[in-house]
Amino acid sequence: MERLQKVIANKGYCSRRNAEVLISDGRVAVNGVIVTELGVKVGPNDEISIDGVKLEGDDKVYFVVNKPRGVISAASDERGRKVVTDLIPVDEVPERIYPIGRLDYDTTGVILLTNDGEFANMMMHPTGEIDKTYVAKVNGVVKPNAIHKLRRGVVLDDGKKTAPAEVYIVSTDKGRDLSTIQITIHEGRYHQVKKMCEAVGYPVKSLRRSQYGCVELGDLPTGGWRRLKPHEVKTLRTMSQAQKGR
């Protein structure tokens, strides 16, 4: 027996958090009876329906997308803006997929999508978040002491210090008063990289996530996508488990 929201997520309908919203809103039924309590458990023979439609499980699928600027990291948007799932043609991928975590509207680069709720939760759970690498173009010529501060961790506007990070200067342009730095973090706090850079005096002009765990952009074009290879999915699971020991 497993919790209803977990079963819905594992069948690829949506994330566990969204499943909890569906249940609370009275849109989920088990064996024909509407369920609104989040603690309900179901077995393999129970019939689950959402909005009157029987829930069927899809094959698990995993993708990486090179998200462009101006695309929302969501499966839908009430304001009609383009979302990341729009980048994958439904005639090629009929499964209901959704992004793992998010990238800001103006941030580009690696974002993973799946219909595997268990895998998504593993990637996003605070104890299992894996390394993510960003390339940031910032205002100013970055000084070594700022890099040292970022590496040790800086206090953000919420009063909490960031975990130690891997930080390197990629290039500097004294004429244009710009620098490019690479930052690898394993936390997933809101606007974290931007806030880290601001905390040491170098506001971000543009930001790209170049790597998520073992998954790199490579030659994937902006707006492009590909299926994750089986060994990548396996490695991500292994990395997530290893993170718990940090």
UniProtKB/TrEMBL annotation:
Its EC number is 5.4.99.-. Pfam families: PseudoU_synth_2, S4. The lineage of its organism: Bacteria, Bacillati, Bacillota, Culicoidibacteria, Culicoidibacterales. It comes from the Bacteria. It comes from Culicoidibacter larvae. One of its GO terms (cellular component) is cytosol. One of its GO terms (biological process) is enzyme-directed rRNA pseudouridine synthesis. InterPro entries: PsdUridine_s_RsuA/RluB/E/F_cat (IPR042092), PsdUridine_synth_cat_dom_sf (IPR020103), PsdUridine_synth_RsuA/RluA (IPR006145), PsdUridine_synth_RsuA/RluB/E/F (IPR000748), PsdUridine_synth_RsuA/RluB_CS (IPR018496), RsuA_PseudoU_synthase (IPR050343), S4_RNA-bd (IPR002942), S4_RNA-bd_sf (IPR036986). It is an enzyme of class 5 (isomerase). This is Pseudouridine synthase. Gene3D superfamilies: Alpha-L RNA-binding motif, Pseudouridine synthase I, catalytic domain, N-terminal subdomain, RNA-binding S4 domain. Belongs to the pseudouridine synthase RsuA family. Keywords: Isomerase, RNA-binding. Residues 2-69 form the RNA-binding S4 domain. One of its GO terms (molecular function) is rRNA pseudouridine synthase activity.
